[in-house]
Amino acid sequence: MDDEEQVDAVEAETEVPEVEAVEEEVAVPAEKAPERKSRKKKAADKEPEEEPVELQVVDAFANGAIPAGATGPSVDRLRAQLGMPGSGPLDRRVSNAVRSWQASNGFTPTGRVDAVTRRSMGV
């Protein structure tokens, strides 16, 4: 007898009672939501809401020319673009470097950082 025949013989000898499928409905109570006690606060009880304060560094020369003697983030970016270390004012040394940059890039070499020069330099 091979394996399949043995399985068939065992199944034939074993009586398995038929089971009827029964579906039962079980009522499960829904969880009761916790009751909320509402208490209106009086105006004096309310804590004042604090609005967040956002501080920003303002670049005073963000959209235009940078005047001689100016300091700040714009001048620092200008100095970095010109390869000048550190930070400091837009002084004669910076103006001379700007003049050289302008001459090298087809601009009239004025040494002033006007809006056109600034945009061209990416500052």
Structure explained in plain terms:
The model has no long low-confidence stretch (mean pLDDT 75). The protein has 123 residues and is mainly α. It has a domain at 73-121. It has helices at 3-13, 73-81, 92-104, 115-121. It contains four helices and no strands. The protein is elongated and about 110 Å long. Helix content is 33%, strand content 0%.
Which oligomeric state applies? single chain
Name the structural class. Answer: mainly alpha
Average of pLDDT: 75
User: SSE order in H/E notation?
Assistant: HHHH
**Which percent bin holds the helix content?**
25-40%
The proportion of residues in beta strands is under 5%
Which stretches are low in confidence, meaning pLDDT under 50 for 5 or more residues running?
none
Total number of helical segments? 4
The strand count comes to: 0
Integer-rounded radius of gyration: 42 Å
| Sheet of most strands | none
Distance between the termini: 93 Å
Using the alpha-carbon principal axes, give the shape: elongated
Comma- or semicolon-separated keywords:
mainly alpha, 123 residues
How would you summarize the topology of this molecule?
Layout: H1 3-13, H2 73-81, H3 92-104, H4 115-121
Structure described in brief:
Helix content is 33%, strand content 0%.
